[in-house]
User: Fold these one by one.
Assistant:
Number 1:
Amino acid sequence: MDRRHGECSRRQLLKAGLGTGLALGMPPVFARAATALAAEATANDRILVVLELSGGNDGLNTLVPYADDAYYRHRPTIGLRPPRVRKIDDRFGFSPGMAGFERLYKDGHLAVVHGCGYDNPSFSHFSSMAYWHTAAPNHGEEYGWVGRLADGLRPGGAPNFVVNIDTTQSLAVRSRDHTPVVFDDPERFSRKGFFQELPLFQHVTEAAEDPNPSRKYLLDVARSARDASALVREAWARYRSPVDYGIVPVDLPKVAALIAAGFPTRLYYAAYRHNVFDTHVHQGDLHGRLLTYVSDAVSGFLRDIERLGRADQVVMMIFSEFGRRVPENTSLGTDHGTANLVFVAGRPVRGGHYGRPPSLTQLVAGDNLVHTTDFRRVYASVIERWLGYTRTEALLRGRFEPLAMFG
Amino acid sequence: MANSVGSGPAQWIDDLSPIGPADWSEDRAAHLLERAGFGGTPEEVERLARMTPAAAVASLVAYQSIDNRHLRPFEHSGVHDRGLEPFPASRPAATDLAKATGQALGVRVKPDGNRRLQAVTNRFFYWLRASRLETNRVAYWWAERMLTTRRPLEEKMALFWHGHFATSEEKVRDYRKMLRQLELFQKHATGSFRDLLIGVARDPAMLAFLDAGVNVKGAPNENFAREIMELFTMGVGQYTEADIREAARAFTGWNFADLAFVVNREQHDDGEKTVLGRPGRFDGVGVIDIILAQPVTAEFVARKIYRFLVREELSPALGTRLGAVLRDHRYAVAPLLRTVFLSRDFYSPASYATRIKSPVELAVSTYKKLGLTEIPGVPDFNEATSALGQQLFRPPTVAGWAQGRSWITPGLLIERGNFARSVLFPDIAFIPPDRYPPDETIRLVSERIAQGLDVTSATRPGPGKAGEGEMAMSNVLADRDEDFNTRYASYRGWQMAIEKVKPIPRRTAPIDLSAMVRANRLRTTTDVVDYFARRFLRLPLEADARARLAGFLDTELGTSQVSEAETYMEDSLRMLLHLVMSAPEYQLG
């Protein structure tokens, strides 16, 4: 295979893995996973990429309702004035740095879902994020919604079906049947060792019934690590892209690299980490910058996917655990709030506004928005209308009407 | 059953009654040392095993009389000066202040000419870098204490409180405050939780971290009040939003001035509040006492300590009993620790060798078990633990580090093996991160400046990857203010910081496994495998793994007799140890 060539279609990879991989001296694990990949090649190959904005993104200063006087009354100092926003219609405009989102919207590839939230909202990052991760507000739930979706799409589990790019595994991808591939830096996702040691590393004890649950967990992860690391590293080493993802690419080039390499992954999960959107104090400059990074990264990623010829296959969903309170606080920032925007982007998406924008004058619970769209309707939309999984009601523990944002 | 060695019977699960001298063993002493400290050498384990369990636990918990004067205080580099105070909240805040008043950070604005605010901006970045680098030295200092202290539980609990009252230097931006906070955790490590909680509420690092400065009468900021109830004391669902708003009023005016706690009387709301059903004109301490009077608080704190020291899963009934122990001793932590460490539950199969070590524990216990008395400079301690998901003084969020299984992902499990390798076979291309900025663009700027380029050209983003119009907004906007250039300031800030901050000594670990093998009179390769397993693992090796490792060493040495290979066995022994430390079981303590 030509190493300078960024693109490597699934078919090419199959050929390499099955036909010439061993001859080229590829590690046996590569060939083994490629076999699994071949079996799947005929199945549905649509991909969902979830991007989490941690810390509670201020939706009102992301897509500004610049025609609404109430917005400026609530935010006399941090409100973004009409001349500064990137207007997409006569009501809304994006934060100044979000040229990428503006273009996506105008190209018809960005769905904006307004007022997403749930009843009895939690103002705790951790609780609210857990509710979004599990799609189970105000309930305990062992597995994440992405993990349950993986269990539904591929019962029994399959290698490399779920990829979570982070240092720690997100609750969202926790699954009964799958061991998600979790890594941060692809270049470090490899075991270092002497040649003589390698055969011993390949050996991982099979421990179906280990009385020590921690040991069993470690052995499961060790197997997943052995099976995925060479593939991920290989994909990353081959990946070259001319696309500019901006200053903070939020791990999306890694997703693109795996897609380019024909990974069998259907569900990707990445995050803008460390609660960065928790803008209590002096938010203006910082928040604008964060949004610029997100906008650059997302639009860069979708251009890259376009370049790879896979734009019809990939949809992205972008969310945060809550929005901010409507009035600004006295420290030129905003406090934890409720309902928020969710974005769904990609060529298969029918762009536009979905859901009703919450009123800025009828506020509840300490100056907060009343949610107008249960966030699980967005989940239902991508699960049912994009990934084609129909037992959504069981998966989401209730009936949530999908939005008509595809096709 | 492999894992039952060392652990007691299953009936011991949830049983808080103490074990007796007949229940004591070397394995259990080693288990105790893992949890109440950072593991031990065979000699340290043996010493503990010779005592009764009660005496062994007491020797760890009642540590106040143990002489620890061999530990040196932190040696400051001298990077701070008074002109830096009060340090502005952000770069824009610093330059805005300079524009408005003609000076900031002790630097006056240039009266005329180009980039009039450059020196202010440089100094802003200087302190960010200097504080970060100095914080990394404080982390080294602390790690060395963990390794060499005679009171391991003190450092272990300080580590717990650091995760519980998670505060990050990334936001605090002052290593001195971080150091003071650590000293608070060490001082109250096993003492009164009330004293500690009040200390934290008045701690400048915490006050800075949770935006206390903006919590003022008439406009309370709820950040601190929320975290104190949700994360520090009661847990979510035990209070209402109204309780948070009222509690926030009680903490109004609590602030810091440099390193001191201050109450700004005119910003403090002295009016009547109602917190958790109790009305009164409370201040912060009043609210803390109301919180401590809630039964749920003792239970929440006791559970969290138990989950840190023993295991992730515990029954509600056990949680209630642990809470009662803490409450009955008026929030003194030591009696709770004594009860836990002596309990049958602590030595039950659910607890024994089931806990996944945190990265800091993994690193320190690795050094400890190797018999080292210094934290090696290569690999860099902070880089190594950070790659594994934990960097001291930089918890990821206010909730601290997720424990247990969260430490392990496929990527991180591999990284843990790589860490062991970097200790046993140090990287000869190692670049000390406290001397060379990790950011490539800084090095690029440095080269271009040296070539005589003007600041604008020198700081332009690297050779453009994308064509016109395709360049990301963030790259377009990066350098627009004519008053100063932030990329140059970042470069210059690094340069000034590196000049002032003392270097971390970069010695590699003095490891001599051959001497270890000789000293223990190990005769065959199987003896060596068994010895390494006993010294480094809490679970015995399975028969096939043991045979594989012995076979590996046979092949490497060309013999199964140690005496024949004595002069050349070091590299092979290190490989063997690397394999042992790469085993999933090595993560368990």
Number 2:
Amino acid sequence: MADPNQTKRVPTRGPMLETPRRNAILKKLNARPTVRGSAIALAVLMLFVLIAPYFAPQNPYDLMALNIMDGRLAPGAESMEGGRYWLGTDSQGRDMLSAILYGLRISLLVGLSAVVLSTLIGSFLGLLAAFKGGWIDTAIMRLVDFILGFPTILVALVLLAVMGRGVDKVVIALVVVQWAHYARIMRGRALQERRKEYIEAAQNLGFPAWRIMLFHLMPNCLSPVMVFATIQIATAIVLEATLSFLGVGVPVTEPSLGLLIASGFEYLLSGDYWISMFPGIALLLLILSINIIGDRMRASLDPR
Amino acid sequence: MALFILRRLLQSLFVLLAVSVVVFFAVYAVGDPIELLVSPEVGQAERQALIARLGLDLPIWQQYGHFLWNALHGDLGNSFVHGMPAVELIVQRIPATFELVVVAITLTCIIGIPLGLVAGLYRDAPLGRGIMATSVLGFSLPNFWQGMVFILLFAVWLGWLPASGRGPTVDVLGVPFSIFTAEGWRHVAMPAVNLAIANIALVLRLTATGVVEARSQDYVKFARAKGVKPGRIVRRHILRNILIPVVTVIGMEFGSLIAYSTITETVFSWPGMGKLLIDSVYQLDRPVVVAYVMLVTLIFVVINLIVDILYAVLDPRVQLLEPAH
């Protein structure tokens, strides 16, 4: 953050977040033990996600590695080959620990790509609406109102019911239901910023509209969008898990945490809790740590 | 006011029409329900007869035309699977969903508002902080997994409550309800709490923020300076002012609870509208999916209209039509 190049470039880019304030925010974020705990938990989960292929005891997609005789073993049970299933196995004899590690990857992949795409699309449209005004503004914001008028889960459910299962399709559905939030936030902020002197100054200098929009206006509207995006990662992951649980999300060949939970549901009633419970705990840890960090971020960036 | 309502009604009609086009074309473009409906042994002639009977041999715009014409007469088509009118099928399921949502909303009010009040009043004490921290857990828990934890705890391990279904129902004015029997309550308890938890967290946080904001207002300071008892300040000055936004949000959540009950109903096999939607999606029962979406859109359009009108009634500062420039 305290990169000298960065500070030198600040004046030419208009009033960006100044370095001292950024540091204050980081300090504040770091202060709470729950926030620190969440950051550590998130870092550990991320690490697991990155090293899963090297670290996982078993490749859960490799059907040859699975032994049907090891099906539905309780946590800590020994496998036919003498290894140990620390978190038990599912009905096909898949090691739950490995399945969770790989499931985390898919959940995170879907959540992150959905958030990145909807942030880009939503922010751009919001910026455009605020900057151009007129019929473009009306058209974009009417569409936003229309989409936000319905509950997220319903729109996503119907979309996927129509499109069918697939990782890419889940991402599309999530983007369709989430971009509107960013457009609304971005437009609100950009409308405030647009009236300020530095925009007027840039206009008087004769800069083209796209340049003012992207290099002057946008950097100053980013902070509420970024805070919202952080929390939306958790929302996107939960939504994906829910859709997969309902059977319209990711395909069985690429099981996310939600699908793992769903696959254990039928065995839950006979008391085989581990197939559903352990992926659920992993999911909960992931979401909780993102939410706690996002919550603190909002509190420290938003003075109210 | 009349002009506003008229304008909104016209807009609503447009929304319904737009949704019907999008959903109809999208749903009818996917999959072949005939494959699911008839067994492979059935001969070609019979198969053709069925396709003709369901109107699937017509071009899609003609199918849509028929659909729209019938929809205007209150007929959203027959279910492919159940062979009865889709609307009737959905209407049969409404009481179950409605009952679940009403119990969940009640729980939200009687748990969320008081806890939020306490959290707001004792914001810096351990109690307030504890409540706020727990509320993060409330909306972090994925709804469906939380329902499964309930089932594992209370149905499988402890055996206190039934894991699924609605239990015996009692007809009140010809509509079956299960909340009038003790056994029915045992069935409704877990799904309702499951549906309510995220909402409780939302209302709790909203109330707490409202209390914190209201507490620093001049009228509260003045009341305190005047020597009004703390209990009365909370009841008369703080609570009254924060209740308007809270009640609005609860009202608007009514609609989304109907949508989210889809998840709860799937987990607890609750025979409501949401479960019907999921089953119909699996069975490619197009008319039911389309009819469900149309009915829910209608419900949402009506709720949004009522909320807007209520705003104006509750808060005289809100103007429904933009003032003439």
